[in-house]
Amino acid sequence: MLYSALIFGFISSLHCVGMCGPIAMMLPVDKDNSLKKWIQIATYQLGRVVAYASLGLLFGILGSGFFFAGFQQQLSIVVGIFMIIVAVVPEKKFATYNFSKPIYSIISKVKSKLGSQFKNKTFKSLFLIGLFNGYLPCGMVYVALFGAMAMNHVFLGSLYMILFGLGTIPLMAVVVNFLKSTSFTFYAKFQKAIPVLMIFMGILFIVRGFGLNIPYFSPSTMNLHIQSEVNCH
Predict the structure, then answer these.
(1) How far apart, in whole angstroms, are the C-alpha atoms of residue 30 and residue 39?
(2) Of all helices (H) and strands (E), which one includes residue 80?
(3) Which of 83, 107, 156, 204 is the most exposed place for a label (fewest CB within 10 A)?
(4) pLDDT score of 188 more than 70
C-alpha cells in the first residue's frame, strides 16, 4: 500500500496549496538567482518531509503494536472508514471540534518558532521553516498518519509519510511559482475532486483489511506473520 502514499500526497497537495501556499510564497529566497532559489525551495521541502517522516515513525510504532496484537487487518479497515468519513463530512463540521486543544501550547511554540525563521535567509532557516510547517495541524496529514499506522511497521510508517510528503511537492512547487500569473478557478475545480479520491483511497484500505488474496491490494490472512488462528502445515 506504499504507492497509496504518493497518490494521497498528490491529492492532499490540492488542499495544501490553500493552506501552506501562503507560507511558501513568503519564503526568504533569492529571487535574482534561479538556481539558488530552487535549491532554497528544495531545502524548505526537505524540512517538511523530515517532519512528516518523524511523525510517521511515531505512528509506525503504534501500528507495529497493533500488528503484534494481531489487529493489523482490523486497523486497515478502520483507517479506510476514517478516510471515507473525512471525505463525506464537510470540513467546516470538523472545524467546530478543536482536536489540537490538548497540545495547543506546543502548537503555539511551533508557530512562534516558524515565524522567527522568516527573518533569516540561511539554508538552516529554510529547513526549519519546512520542519515547523510540517508539524502544524492539518487534516490531510492526520489522515495520512492513520495510513502510516496501518502499515504495521515502524520503518514502513516513516516511509509512508516520506512518500506522502514527496507526493505533495510537485503541484505545490508549480502553483507557488506561478501563483501570481495563474487564476485560482482551476484550483476550485480540483478541490471538488478531493472527496472522490479520498473515498477511493478509503476503499483501498478497507479491501486490504478484508484479506481477499488479491496481489498488491489485499493480501490473504495466510500471508500475514501473525494470525488470529494457528495455521499448521
Answers:
(1) 10
(2) helix 72-88
(3) 107
(4) no
Distance CA 64, CA 16 (A): 29
Classify 211 in phi/psi space as left (phi over 0), alpha (psi -120 to 50) or beta. left
Q: Torsion-angle region of residue 216: left (phi > 0), alpha (psi -120 to 50) or beta?
A: left
SS3 214: strand
Query: Residue 56 in contact with residue 162, Cβ under 8 Å?
Result: yes
- Grid coordinates representing 181 are 500569473
Q: Which amino acid is at 57?
A: L
Q: What is the DSSP string of 109-134?
A: HHHHHHHHHTT--SHHHHHHHHHHHH
Residue carrying the nine cell digits 490473504: 220
What cell was used for 92? Answer: 467546516
- Distance, in Å, from the CA atom of 88 to the CA atom of 95, rounded to the nearest integer, reads 14
Written as nine digits, the cell of 158 is: 516513516
In this predicted structure, the answer to whether residue 11 has a pLDDT above a threshold of 70 is: yes
Of 87, 85, 81, the residue nearest 205 (C-alpha) = 81
At 31, the amino acid letter reads K
Does pTM top 0.85 for this prediction? no
Which residues are bridge partners to 214 per DSSP? Answer: 218
Task: Say if residues 94 and 86 touch (Cβ distance below 8 Å).
Answer: yes
The size of the chain, in residues, is: 233
Confirm if 73 and 210 have CB atoms less than 8 A apart: yes
Question: What is the C-alpha separation between 97 and 94, in angstroms, rounded?
Answer: 6
| Rounded-to-integer distance, Cα 69 and Cα 198, Å | 28
